[in-house]
Amino acid sequence: MALMSEPVVSLKDDTRKQLGAFLRARRESLDPQRLGLPRSGRRRTPGLRREEVALLADVGVTWYTWLEQGRDVNPSSTVMAAVAKALQCTPTETRHLFVLAGLPPGEAPQATGCEGISEGTRRLLDTLMPKPASIQKPNFDIVAWNDSFGHLMGVDFNAIPPEDRNCIYLFLTPSRMACAAWQA
Questions:
Q1: The HTH cro/C1-type domain covers which part of the protein (predicted)?
Q2: What are the pLDDT digits (tens) for 35-90?
Q3: Do 56 and 126 have their domain in common?
Q4: Average pLDDT for 148-165
Q5: Predicted pLDDT at 114
Q6: Helix (H) or strand (E) holding 135
Q7: Domain of 20?
Q8: How many Å apart are CA 136 and CA 23, to the nearest integer?
Q9: Last-in-domain residue among 72, 107, 142
Q10: CA-to-CA distance for 109 and 37, rounded, in angstroms?
Q11: Residue 9: its pLDDT value, please?
């Protein structure tokens, strides 16, 4: 009686599969319209298409497909940071993504309250006080604000995770959801 042996799977192969599963789960969880992508016919899969992630991350479609399929590719920290940003990963998810990609988690970009905003732009927002002012991306994600804008919206933006700082989402969220001490 011959014993059947299971195929030997290296840790690296298993890690690549986990990376692919994580990327796919993140991709499928995103709403293309919320990211400002045009609606283009019927979608066969939920969330973003691989082509859209590749476009947002500024990487090749084939390369991203191979990464998601768990093939043996060696991404750089810069490329993985771009993929994490395209998939709107939280800082914790970005560190996890770096670990799965075999990169030091310390190389993952650190989140800041107003990332990508110059000091001059920051001063301009503060100069506009007491008038409310904010800087938003095309998909209405709020990337910078002054205190008056926070008061106008009734929100402490520093207490909200960056991925939840979206003007439309905040506007359409009922007030009782935004206030922890809401009395019915």
A1: 22-94
A2: 777 766 677 778 888 998 998 888 999 999 999 998 888 888 888 988 998 898 88
A3: no
A4: 84
A5: 53
A6: strand 134-136
A7: 11-107
A8: 26
A9: 107
A10: 25
A11: 37
How high does pLDDT run on average in the chain?
80
CATH of the domain at 38: 1.10.260.40
**159 lies in a domain?**
yes
pLDDT at 18: 92
Predicted pLDDT of residue 102: 87
Cα separation of 183 and 181, whole Å? 6
- Residue 45 lies inside a defined structural domain of this protein: yes
Instruction: Give the pLDDT confidence of 17-41 residue by residue, as tens digits.
Output: 999 999 999 999 988 877 777 766 6
Residues 6+ away with beta carbon under 8 Å from 43? 32, 49
**Count of domains for the chain:** 2
Paired tokens of 131:
């008038």
- For residues 149 and 94, state if they share a domain: no
Residues 21 and 90 in one domain: yes
pLDDT reported for residue 175: 58
Both 98 and 159 in one domain: the answer is no
CA dihedral of 27, 31, 36, 39, whole degrees rounded to 10? 100
CA 184 – CA 181 distance, rounded (Å): 10
